[in-house]
Amino acid sequence: LLYKPVDRVTRSTLVLHDLLKHTPVSHPDHPLLQDALRISQNFLSSINEEITPRRQSMTVKKGEVSLSAL
């Protein structure tokens, strides 16, 4: 359930990307779509930057013992 909101932003980002591809540059909404896409991509990047170190610290290679488990 915790991933559902992030998944929704991911899907919305893909929709914005496709919509921007089919919106002419001369259309008045084009700059707004660019801004919305940039904001959603920045949000997803910040989420990934926060999750990656946590995920790496939780990953234990085969044969190793996690100190946090002790």
TrEMBL record:
Signal sequence bounds: none
Pfam families the UniProt entry points to: RhoGEF
Cellular component GO terms, alphabetical: membrane
Taxonomy, superkingdom: Eukaryota
Single GO term (MF): guanyl-nucleotide exchange factor activity
Domain DH, first and last residues per copy: 1-50
UniProt-recorded name of the protein: BCR protein
Natural source organism: Xiphorhynchus elegans
Name of the gene: Bcr_0
